[in-house]
Automatic annotation (TrEMBL):
Protein's UniProt name: N-acetyltransferase domain-containing protein
Lineage of the species this protein comes from: Eukaryota, Sar, Alveolata, Perkinsozoa, Perkinsea
GO MF entry, a single one: acyltransferase activity, transferring groups other than amino-acyl groups
Originating species: Perkinsus chesapeaki (Clam parasite)
Pfam families given in the database record: Acetyltransf_1
Signal peptide: none
Length: 171
């Protein structure tokens, strides 16, 4: 008997999978497998709260991924000089920088688009900030998947060394 591939089954499965993931701002009762990391980045967030992905089937506070972004980001002078070198247009124009401080998705939830949705949220924050120049992020060289994700969303390498890659997305 010949196997039959039904693409509608996979589309339906993907839709069901995404229905139990909800996206929202961090709440004080949220739980993450690295609770101290969640609290470190999200309880100090101030004006721009962490944005989380929650598996509501597991628990309304079961965080399966989150992103912490700082806007405005007080970019160190030496980093700003490197970021501006690759910036299109007027490299001396005044404006605001942002930084992605942390992005993580629980291993079992990866490849489901959760990291993309979280990143899109931070990119949108930059797009809606007046005089926004660039969003920056630091990535470990061995984190090939993260580098690929950032590249798909327009981040380019500003500089790198054996310890990390420094990427920026220009606006």
């Amino acid at each position: 008997m010949k196997a039959h591939f039904n693409p509608y089954f996979f589309i339906l499965f993907a839709l069901q999978e995404s229905e139990h993931i909800k996206y929202r701002n961090y709440e004080e009762n949220d739980k993450f497998y690295k609770q101290s990391v969640l609290e470190l980045y999200c309880q100090k967030a101030g004006d721009i709260p962490c944005y989380v992905a929650v598996d509501v089937d597991e628990n309304p506070n079961a965080v399966v991924g989150f992103i912490a972004t700082t806007i405005p980001y007080e970019i160190p002078e030496w980093e700003e000089a490197d970021v501006r070198k690759k910036m299109p247009g007027d490299k001396k124009r005044n404006g605001v920088f942002g930084n992605i401080d942390y992005l993580e998705v629980v291993t079992d939830y990866r490849t489901k688009g959760i990291g993309s949705k979280l990143l899109e949220h931070s990119i949108h924050r930059g797009e809606t900030t007046k005089k926004f120049l660039a969003m920056t992020v630091t990535v470990l060289p061995e984190d090939v998947r993260a580098i690929g994700l950032y590249n798909r969303y327009g981040f380019v390498e500003v500089f790198s060394d054996e310890s990390y890659y420094y990427l920026a997305r220009y606006y």
